[in-house]
Amino acid sequence: MVWGIGAAGINLYHRVHGGFTGRHWEFGVRSYSALIARRACYSSLNVLQKVTEIFHEAYGELRPRAPAPVMHVRFYPFVSINNTIRLRQGEIYARVSDLLEGAPENVLHAIAHILLAKLYRKPVDRAQSARYRRYIASHDISAKARLVRQMRGRKHIRSARGHHYHLEEIFDDLNRRFFHGLMGRPQLTWSRNHARRSLGHYDPAHNAIVISRVFDHPRVPRYAVEYILFHEMLHLKHPVKLRGSRRCVHSREFHEEEKLFPELERAQKFLRMV
């Protein structure tokens, strides 16, 4: 089992590890990625020793009567801020994003607590969860995470020109009508497949808007394509904000500006049928 804890919440997955199916938990910020090229653990021994001690301390808090197993903790160059843990043959293997190597001890303790709590099916302390979320949502860490995604991650940019609609033409029209022509054009592309779960998204790390190819069809009204693209343009104008320990994806200003789209109700009704 794999748990993912990101900005949007907690998701459950299943994963097989090279012939071994074990208990494996992970949490991170997927969005969405590294300051240096992918490589093995690069942290110094004393830092790893300290992090391992923090994991032992968190283990003792969660399971005070149980003897601590052997722990293998290391920093790893994930594509995004991600942290994983698994139990294999009675030993714990934890990997922490290398972007968090310089994090304060209380943040590393929060990471250890969350991972171990998930591994042993214990309730996650709200204060620890909030501490972790606040740290990774801070300006410095968010900026580093975006740079990491640019350097380590890949973004498949195909073409803004579809069989029926041209995204750049629609973007320029919307830019003139709603943004006074002042919005810089990001990379625009149709998705690789006819996705229905993700109709569109804006990726700030690659400054790209991706629209599902399911809308590149003569039976799809232009106002529906315009609305999807307009919505993602608003994400470019109104970045995600942090309120306490929670990320605000659609702010009040976002919603107010979205209401300016003249075909809003028709477009939303059409999308519900997709």
What do you see in this structure?
- With 274 residues, the chain is of the alpha+beta class.
- The chain folds into two domains: 2-152, no CATH class; 167-272, Metalloproteases ("zincins"), catalytic domain (Zincin-like).
- It has eight helices and eleven strands.
- α1 packs across α2 (105-119) and α2 (105-119) packs across α3 (126-136).
- The radius of gyration is 22 Å and the shape is elongated.
- The model is unreliable at 1-22 and 28-43 (pLDDT under 50).
Brief synopsis:
The protein has 274 residues and is an alpha+beta fold. The chain is 37% helix and 20% strand. The strands form four sheets. The chain has a four-stranded mixed beta sheet with strand order 3-5-6-4, with helices on one face. Strands 7-9-8 form a three-stranded mixed beta sheet, covered by helices on one side. A two-stranded antiparallel ribbon has the order 1-2.
Give helix % range.
25-40%
Helix/strand structural class: alpha+beta
Number of DSSP strand runs? 11
Uncertain residue ranges: 1-22, 28-43
Q: Can you write the helix and strand succession as a string? A: EEEHEEEHHHHEEEHEEHH
Specify the biggest β-sheet.
4 strands, mixed
- Average pLDDT for all residues: 80
Chain-wise SSE layout:
Layout: E1 2-6, E2 9-13, E3 23-29, H1 45-62, E4 71-76, E5 81-88, E6 91-97, H2 105-119, H3 126-136, H4 139-152, H5 167-178, E7 187-190, E8 200-203, E9 208-211, H6 222-237, E10 241-243, E11 246-248, H7 252-258, H8 264-272
Parallel strand pairs: 4-6, 7-9
Antiparallel strand pairs: 1-2, 3-5, 5-6, 8-9, 10-11
